[in-house]
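On clarity, I found the account of how folds are encoded harder to follow than it need be. Since the whole study asks how a given chain folds, the encoding of that fold should be made plain. For illustration, here is how one protein appears when written out as sequence plus structure tokens:
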Amino acid sequence: MHTQQTAPQPQKIRIGTRESKLALLQTDIVMARLKGLSQSLEIEIVPITTKGDKVLDRPIAELGGRGVFVKELEEALLRDEVDIVVHSLKDLPTDMPESLALASVLDRNDPRDVLLSKDNLQFLKLPAGSRIATSSRRRAAQLLHLRKDIEFVDIRGNIPTRIRKFDEGYCDAIVLACAGLNRLDLQSRICQHFEVDTVTPAAGQAALAVECRSADKAVLDLLKQIEDLEGRLEADCERAYLGELGGGCSVPVGASAKVAGGKITLTGCIASLDGQELMRDSITETVNGDPNLASRAGLALASKMLAAGGKQIMDELRRQTPNVVSAP
């Protein structure tokens, strides 16, 4: 009888990461999980600066190219300068190189988007003409669908930098991911959580992703041991939806999946840049822990929405935003 061979466990792991406080906190989470498997495992942190970290004077949507917070990390993997890299999963494009693998999804936090505002006003209570800061077309489009009497301004930098700019009067409100604020212990600044049927999050939002070389079986085996199964199912469902839509370019597409009781429920959203057109739908399927069934649910919802008018919105978005990448 043939038995699958397990590769010997590596003695040392080099982890590539961005250098922001949040990125390093996320790397610490992965490192602690790995140390939980083996205290003798030697871990080296390798800081890497991405294009998205370097170019701060232009909107992310203007930078172009493959994921602006991902490319340099993946290149370090391909050059064998690191063994694994840690990402915020929402930053990782769905069209990954064959030589690299999404080896582990873990530690999913609250996937919702949140609002910070002057006087802690809720979104619908903000005065007309309020300036709301976000670098995400997905967020702006969905909020414009709710209100046309507000203005969006681009904002760059890590979360503490964005909050400092808000505090200094750069804007009247700011939209951020809840998970980042939670991990940085800044949740007290939140004045409103947007539910997923009001502002649908980015695919993979709030989850950590660990990427490695596809051929590195020992590392793949190790990383599989720290994976959160529910987080993986939700990620595979959301990423399948995004991939089927062709949402790799700068488009306002959201996807949020939740596993409960052997089933997965996916909410998906497609919006025009001006918020005039917005489609949102959901699907619930039985998955019983099977990632393939989770992916199939994502594909099914994407196909349904494309057929119901989403294709026209996506085609128009591609004409308006060729060859650029925007923050999810």
Summary: Residues 291-320 form the longest helix (30 residues). The two ends are 47 Å apart (CA to CA). The chain has a mean pLDDT of 90.
